[in-house]
Amino acid sequence: MKEGGRSDEIPLFLIPTGGGNLINYYELVSQLEGLNIYGFVPKGYENDEEPLYTVQELAQYYYGVLTQFNPIGPYRLLGWSFGGNVAFEMARIIEDAGQQLEWLIILDAPARSHERDVRAINKMEALAELARNNGYEFKRNTDYEDQLKEAMNQFPGENTLRHLKVRLANEVAFDNYYSAKPIQSDIHLLYATAQDERSPVPLTDAQAWHAKTTGTCTSTPIPGHHENLIDYNHAVNVAQYVNRMVKGWIR
After folding, report:
1. Which of 102, 107, 142, 202 lies 20 to 30 Å (CA to CA) from residue 72?
2. Which residue, 27, 69, 62, is CA-closest to 42?
3. The dihedral of CA 147, 148, 153, 155: what is its sign?
4. Is 115's pLDDT higher than 90?
5. Which residues contact 33 (CB under 8 A, 6 or more apart)?
6. Closest residue by Cα to residue 84 from 158, 203, 188
7. pLDDT band at 24 (very low <50, low <70, confident <90, very high)
8. What is the mean pLDDT of residues 215-226?
């Protein structure tokens, strides 16, 4: 996503959002200094492979890509929203592999429980829920692939059928996700201070993230709400924090 940083600086890897893309990070990336920055692409986003339907599988897949690029750490990860939970699971995999994680930056992501108290959901239900949220109902007993094609006519914001499938796979992954145990790595949590009246996304529980690591969790409030935290007007606040990390002012 961005090269030209110092060759002696560890690169930063961005985790895709629930939509499966990295576009939400572009404004933030433009304001980060001295870093080479890379992002992952979900399975099935650019080809006809079947997407992955659990956070753990996504984390393992991205870790495989990460170690192909950089076999030996230390590593730096940043994830916003759904991407924050995937980054958290990647941290666990990195630790279990005996590798070093230098940064785990989580931007306004919900801290999922250590217990299995989540609402199980499958891809048919995820698609039906997406349709209902947009004022549309599918016919009963319709084939999933047929529903997907029909959905493309109802949700023109989705560029391709592949992208819609990845988005729905991520919905399933998130709704079925719970974290088994705390990690050991430090967490830098940056969370929104306001809630968007148009969005059902609740405020991030900062204290819940403190329980998710046996290391240190540094939680920092950032002006804005979940949807605009890294947009044109607000990304500067997150960028300032990360740039201070680059300079060694925050550890």
Report:
1. 107
2. 62
3. positive
4. no
5. 243, 246
6. 188
7. very high
8. 95
Question: Quick one: tokens of 181?
Answer: 């145990």
pLDDT at 90: 98
Q: Using one digit for the tens of pLDDT, what is the confidence trace for 76-103?
A: 999 999 999 999 999 999 999 999 999 9
Token readout for 196 is: 């968007």
Report the distance separating Cα 122 and Cα 58, nearest Å. 16
DSSP per residue over the chain, as a string? -B--S-TTSPPEEEEP-TTS-SGGGHHHHHH--S--EEE---TTSSSSSPPP-SHHHHHHHHHHHHHHH-SS--EEEEEETHHHHHHHHHHHHHHHTT--EEEEEEES-----SSS------HHHHHHHHHHHTT--PPTT--HHHHHHHHHHH-TT---HHHHHHHHHHHHHHHT----S-BSS-EEEEEESS--TT--PPPP-HHHHHTTBSS-EEEEEESS-GGGTTSTTTHHHHHHHHHHHHTTS--
List phi, psi (to 5°) of 153. -80, -25
Reading the block at residue 55, the tokens are: 């956070």
